[in-house]
Specification:
Layout: E1 4-10, H1 21-33, E2 35-45, E3 58-62, E4 65-73, H2 74-93, H3 104-121, E5 130-134, H4 141-147, E6 154-157, H5 165-168, H6 174-181, E7 186-189, H7 192-206, E8 209-210, E9 215-218, E10 221-227, H8 234-242, H9 244-256, E11 261-268, H10 275-288, E12 296-303, H11 310-330, E13 338-341, H12 350-356, E14 359-362, H13 371-379, E15 387-391, E16 404-406, H14 411-422, H15 426-442, H16 445-462
Parallel strand pairs: 1-2, 1-5, 2-4, 5-6, 6-7, 7-10, 11-12, 11-14, 12-13, 14-15, 15-16
Antiparallel strand pairs: 3-4, 8-9, 9-10
Helix pairs in contact: 1-16, 2-3, 3-4, 8-12, 9-12, 10-11, 10-14, 12-13
C-alpha cells in the first residue's frame, strides 16, 4: 500500500482534537497507510535565507506518521508568508484586489521557500509515495519537485476560492502560477463554481483545452480538475458535543440566556468573513424589528488572525466601533445586544455554544467552504434544531441549499432572513435540519479524502505522460 505524504504550510499533531480541520481530515488516511506530514515549523531564525545549518528537517514520529518540519528565515517569513501568501494570493483569491500588495520581493521569497520545501522533502520520498499538497502557499511545489526528477503522483487541493479569470490575471506572476499547476496530476477545488473559474482562466490565458471528462490540456500536460467539497467528521464533532465540556457549556449557555434568543457567529478576524456587514444587519434587525430588543443576543467570536498585517488592525478597530455603537444605542442595564469576543474559544467547547444557539450567522463575503456552517448543524438537537443563515458566497452554499441563503452585502435582506430564522416554526426547522444533515453525513471528511485520492490514482492511470518543463 502506498504511503501518503501530506505537504502543507503548517503541520499539526493529528492526535490532538484541537489540531484543526486539515488534521481531522487527513489523520485517518495517514494512520492507515503510514506516511509523512511535511511543512513549516512555525519558527523563524534571523540568518540569511538558504543557510543550510539552520534549515534542516526536524522530525517526530506519531504512530505510523512522521511529522517533518523546517524553520524559515525571518526574511522568508516576511516575503513568502506575510508577503506573497497573505498580501497577494489571499486578497486576490477572495476578490479583494484593493488589498493586494504586488511587490517583486514577495514573489521571489515565495518561490524560494517552495524550492526549500522541495529540496527538504525530496530525500524523504519513496518511489511508491502519493503526495498531496495543500493550499495557496504551495502552488509551485509540484513544479519544483518535478524539476528535481520526482515522478510520484502529486495532487493539489486549494482550500480557498478561485476568483474569476480577470481577477486572477491581475497577479503579475499569474502565468507562472498557472503553468506550475500543470505539474500536478490532479487539482481539487471546493466547488463547481471554483472549478469553472479555473477552467475559464486556463482557456483564456493559456489556450487550454477542456475535455468533458474533467481534464485540461495545456503546456504539453493533461491535468485533471475536479470539485471535492471538504466535509467534517460528523461523528467526531458529535462526540465533542456529548463530552463533559460540551455538555457543561451547553447548560451554562442555556442558563445564562434562558430569557433570550441566542445568535452565534464564529469566525477568524478576517476581512473575507463579512463581520462588519453582519453587525450592520443585526443593527437593522433591532431597528426595524423592535420586538427583538431585549430578546435577541448575538455572540460574535472573532479569533485573532494575522494581526501583524495592517488590514487586520483596521478591521479590529472597525469591529470595536460597530459593536460598541450598537450596545450603546440599544443596550439596557440587563441586556447587551452584542457580546463581542476577540480571542480563541477551545474547540471542545464550541459544540455546546452551537447547540445553545437558535440561529447561526455564517455570512462571509467570500469563502472557500466554511466548516463552521457544518459544525453548527452537527451540534444541533434534531428534535429542536437551530437555523443556519448562510452567505451565498460561501462554498458551503453550493451544498447546503436548505439553509437560509443571503447576500451579506444586503443588510436589509440579511436582517429579514434573521427575523425569519428567529420566528421559524419547529416543523420547518426540523425538516430543513434533517435535509442538511443528510448532506453533511453523505459528503463528510472521509468521503472528501477518499474521493480525492481515488481521483488522483485515476488521473495518473488515465493520463500517463512525461512532465513538461513547468519552470
Amino acid at each position: 500500500m502506498s504511503r501518503l505524504v501530506i505537504v502543507s504550510n503548517r503541520v499539526a499533531d493529528p492526535r490532538k482534537a484541537a489540531a484543526g480541520g486539515l488534521a481531522v481530515a487527513i489523520k485517518d488516511g495517514l494512520q492507515q497507510t503510514g506516511g509523512v506530514w511535511f511543512g513549516w515549523s512555525g519558527k523563524t531564525f534571523t540568518d540569511a535565507p538558504g543557510v543550510a545549518s539552520h534549515s534542516g528537517v526536524h522530525t517526530q514520529t506519531v504512530g505510523k506518521v512522521q511529522l517533518a518540519t523546517v524553520d524559515l528565515s525571518q526574511q522568508d517569513y516576511e516575503t513568502y508568508y506575510l508577503g506573497y501568501s497573505n498580501n497577494v494570493l489571499w486578497p486576490v483569491f477572495h476578490n479583494r484586489l484593493d488589498l493586494a500588495q504586488f511587490d517583486v520581493r514577495f514573489a521571489t521569497g515565495y518561490r524560494r521557500v517552495n524550492q526549500l520545501f522541495a529540496q527538504r522533502i525530496f530525500p524523504l520520498l519513496k518511489p511508491s509515495d502519493v503526495i498531496w499538497v495543500h493550499d495557496y502557499h504551495l502552488i509551485p511545489l509540484a513544479a519544483e519537485l518535478r524539476a528535481m526528477g520526482c515522478t510520484n503522483p502529486i495532487g493539489f487541493f486549494l482550500h480557498i476560492p478561485v476568483p474569476p479569470p480577470l481577477i486572477m490575471a491581475a497577479i503579475p506572476e499569474h502565468e507562472w502560477l498557472m503553468r506550475s499547476l500543470f505539474a500536478y496530476d490532479l487539482v481539487g477545488l471546493q466547488t463547481e463554481s471554483d472549478m469553472m473559474h479555473l477552467v475559464r482562466y486556463a482557456e483564456t490565458e493559456a489556450g487550454a483545452q477542456w475535455r468533458p471528462d474533467g481534464y485540461l490540456r495545456a503546456f504539453n500536460r493533461t491535468l485533471r480538475v475536479g470539485a471535492f467539497p471538504i466535509g467534517m467528521d460528523v461523528g467526531e464533532f458529535a462526540s465533542l458535543a456529548d463530552a463533559r465540556e460540551g455538555l457543561d457549556m451547553f447548560a451554562r449557555m442555556r442558563e445564562e440566556y434562558s430569557r433570550r434568543q441566542l445568535l452565534i457567529g464564529v469566525d477568524r478576524l478576517d476581512y473575507s468573513k463579512g463581520l462588519p456587514q453582519r453587525i450592520q444587519a443585526f443593527r437593522y434587525l433591532l431597528e426595524h424589528y423592535p420586538e427583538n430588543r431585549k430578546r435577541a443576543t448575538l455572540i460574535q467570536i472573532a479569533a485573532p488572525s494575522r494581526e501583524d498585517l495592517g488590514a487586520y488592525d483596521h478591521l479590529r478597530r472597525e469591529m470595536d466601533s460597530l459593536c460598541g455603537a450598537i450596545n450603546g444605542d440599544y443596550g439596557e442595564l440587563d441586556w447587551m445586544p452584542v457580546r463581542y469576543i476577540h480571542r480563541n474559544v477551545a474547540r471542545r467547547r464550541l459544540p455546546g455554544v452551537y447547540r445553545a444557539a437558535h440561529v447561526a450567522l455564517v455570512t462571509p463575503l467570500r469563502d472557500g467552504m466554511n466548516l463552521v456552517a457544518k459544525e453548527f448543524l452537527a451540534a444541533q438537537d434534531p428534535a429542536d434544531p437551530g437555523v443556519l443563515v448562510l452567505s451565498r458566497f460561501a462554498g458551503a452554499a453550493e451544498q447546503l441549499k436548505e439553509a437560509l441563503l443571503v447576500n451579506p452585502y444586503d443588510s436589509q435582506g440579511t436582517a429579514q432572513a434573521i427575523e425569519r430564522a428567529l420566528t421559524m416554526p419547529l416543523g420547518e426547522r426540523i425538516e430543513r435540519h434533517s435535509a442538511l444533515m443528510t448532506t453533511i453525513r453523505q459528503y463528510d471528511v472521509h468521503w472528501w479524502r477518499t474521493s480525492f485520492l481515488d481521483a488522483l490514482k485515476q488521473a495518473v492511470a488515465q493520463a500517463p505522460e512525461a512532465v513538461a518543463d513547468t519552470q
